[in-house]
Amino acid sequence: MNIERRLVRKGSLEKLFDVLKENGRNIVGPSEKNGKTSFKKAGKFSDLASDHIQTTQSSKEVAFPRSEKILDYSRSADGMSVKGIEISEMPEIILWGIRPCDATGWGELGAIFNWDYKDEIYNNRLSKVAVIGISCAKADEFCFCTSVGGNPGNTEGSDILLTKLGEDGDYLAEIITEKGSSIMAMAPALFEEGGQIEKEKYLADIAVKFDREAIRKNLDKMFESEEWIRQSLRCIGCGACAYVCPTCACFDIQDEAHGKSGSRVRCWDSCGFSLFTLHTSGHNPREVQSQRWRQRIMHKFAYMPDRLSVYGCTGCGRCSRACPVDMNILEHLTSIQEAAV
Fold it and tell me: In DSSP terms, which residues pair with 41 in a beta bridge?
């Protein structure tokens, strides 16, 4: 559908929040506590934070939980009984206030979870999520969305995108999808005519830092490069980068048994962990951290574009902010672009 542009008054946002709650929607949005902003279920509008640059963790957990039961099983004299997750029990969620670099991550995750097999659990969770994004009016030194095909007012991945018109102003509302139209239909009076406003002057200025296509071409020749050793010397393999990333989708499957019954659980994993590729035989094809760091960059900037036609990085900068040893992915990507190969 064509993007419809409306004006939402500053004072109408709380009214929209209340209407959505009255219509039975669970609202998940950014919440600030002890200096960190994270996505939490919001009971009232004042629970939502708005002055942050980026949340500590991404929003992917609403459709790809860090740990989720995918089936129950039990064994009896009659054999094995298996019961899958009830899709109807998944809640309707409004994901409120995510940044465009988070919203675009749904495209990358969707490509991963629907590559050679359509993941019904992920797809059904996501089908029950509607996204109200908010454009970025400011950025920090870790932001680089414009270097990976995005921008601070990117509509991709949002159902409605709000752009604040000045420090204390109203909001331009871009209605992007059918889900967005359904939200507007719940409170049509809050979405006024007059949305023919150029939003660019209200967006953060984020300079392009590198050419991702040049990086992709260099990576084709860098598999055995010493650059991976130099870049990974500080890496401790903690996995923080993967856990805060909006596009990392590595997971493990565990069976939690209790006698003759139990559950099968899917939980987050990371290719940066030493155990991730450890074989039962004891062999590990990525036995040192430089190989694991190489895999992370290759996957996002070579393997995913080649296999899925999407890049695995949205430029949110979370991994650099979260790293306990100050590994800055922007610096490393720039180094790869400049590498003599």
Answer: 28
